[in-house]
Amino acid sequence: MEEVKQGQIYRHFKGPYYYIICVGLDSETRERIVVYQHLDSSKAICTRPEKMFLEQIPERPDNVTGQKHRFELCTKFENL
């Protein structure tokens, strides 16, 4: 399985961009947890298990980016 890259920008399949602050470990389960920040006006900081962060998504109408995974590493960031 691929690992999330700290300090990089990822795009969600619904379109928004997120900055990866770090990847930590859940203190109980030792599961890898991604800590990320919204790159919109809210600047909210969130967490999500890495496994869910990188999971493949089925075809769905709200997948505006056409991505295969929930979040994908950006090679080009379009600041909105």
Write the layout of secondary structure elements.
Blueprint: E1 9-12, E2 17-25, E3 32-38, E4 45-49, H1 50-53, E5 71-73
Antiparallel strand pairs: 1-2, 1-5, 2-3, 3-4
Helix count, DSSP H or I runs of 4 or more residues: 1
Query: What is the H-and-E element order?
Result: EEEEHE
If strands are numbered along the chain, what order do they take across the biggest sheet?
A: 4-3-2-1-5
- Measured as a percent range, the helix fraction is under 10%
Unreliable runs: none
The overall pLDDT, averaged over residues, is 91
Oligomer: single chain
Largest sheet: 5 strands, antiparallel
Overall outline: globular
β content, as a range? 35-45%
Counted beta strands? 5
Structural class: mainly beta
Indicate the radius of gyration in whole angstroms. 13 Å
The span between the termini is 30 Å
Explain what you see.
The protein has one helix spanning 50-53; strands at 9-12, 17-25, 32-38, 45-49, 71-73. It is mostly beta strands and 80 residues long. The longest helix is centred in the middle third of the chain and has 4 residues, at 50-53. It starts with 8 loop residues before the first strand and ends in a 7-residue tail after the last strand.
Keyphrases for this structure?
80 residues; single chain; 5-stranded antiparallel sheet; mainly beta
